[in-house]
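INFO batch 0412 | record 1 of 1 | parsing
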Amino acid sequence: MHNKAKTRLAIADDHEIFRQGFKALIARQAGLELVGEAGNGKDLLGLIVRLQPELVFVDIKMPIMDGIDTTREIKSSFPSTKVIALSMFNDDHLVSDMLHAGASGYLLKDATQEELINAINAVMSGGSYFCRDTSERITALVETNYFYPEKGNLRLRFSDREIKIIRLICEQYTTKEIASILGLSNRTIDAQRDTIQQKTNSKNMVGIALYAIKNGIYKLEL
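INFO prediction complete | emitting tokens
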């Protein structure tokens, strides 16, 4: 679990029954605290200002402001707030749009409790998390140029160290873990990651992973 006593969470979903179930699940986890809930994206944004959750779960299909626009606004106005997408659907355009908006994870609403906790741990440790079905969709989309149709087979030059870091990011290692594996400081890894993001025109580590899969730097094991 994340190293803080409590990880502050919030959820936006227009179905109250689902929110109640989510709240009951989180209440059973000692290291988590649900600080707020909203029925749409606009209300969630106001909630973030007041309660400052570290991680928010965002339903994609919501009235007033959907999950894609909400995630885009969160990452613009509250860049340190992490987002995990929730959806009943695993459609190509939804996965693509949420990742481009800045989500660090994607879970279907029938995810198990174990998946949910694993997703929270991964994202709060600086990584990303996708349920198995979504990982399979990402691989298929990357292979068909869905994410980067305009880039074709464009390849960039990376140092050996950058390649190692990219592959470790794809394997969902945290900054601290990558630093330990490579015998470097956390600050060095952060700087290298920022350089890689600039080279690949990525907003976050999800974008780095997508680039790596697309260009054969890393092969996702299913």
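INFO post-check: DSSP finds ten helices and six strands in the chain.
INFO record closed
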